[in-house]
Amino acid sequence: MVEEPDEEPDSFGILPENVDALNWFLLMQTQWTPGMNGLVGMRYDVFLQWAKEEGVKRLDRLWLLDDLRMMEGEYLATLYQAAR
Q1: Residue 69 predicted with pLDDT over 70
Q2: Which residues pair with residue 34 across a beta bridge?
């Protein structure tokens, strides 16, 4: 029988294919749309323009946007769950 750890690990790994998405998520940390009850979502228009100016190819921008949306959803769910 495997026992569950009592604490969250201090570190975690990132798969190589997720590094770019994580880096963009961290770069975008100041680009959230505020609402009456807190954050609503990321400013996708800012990401798309910024990535274009950085020379990220169109198809890669779309893939990154999908990844950002997934991380955004998990972040918001965690944020609002912690607020309850």
Answers
A1: yes
A2: 39
Q: Please name which of 44, 40, 79, 39 lies closest in space to residue 64, comparing C-alpha atoms.
A: 44
pLDDT of residue 31: 96
Contacts with 58 (C-beta within 8 Å, 6 or more apart), sequence order: 52
d(CA 32, CA 40): 7
For the chain, what are the domain ranges?
46-84
pTM of the shown model: 0.80
Helices then strands (H, E): number in the chain?
A: 3, 2
Six token digits for residue 62? 């779309």
The amino acid occupying position 22 is L
* pLDDT tens sequence across 4-44: 666 777 788 999 999 999 999 999 999 999 999 889 999 99
Question: Which structure tokens are listed for 8?
Answer: 């969250």
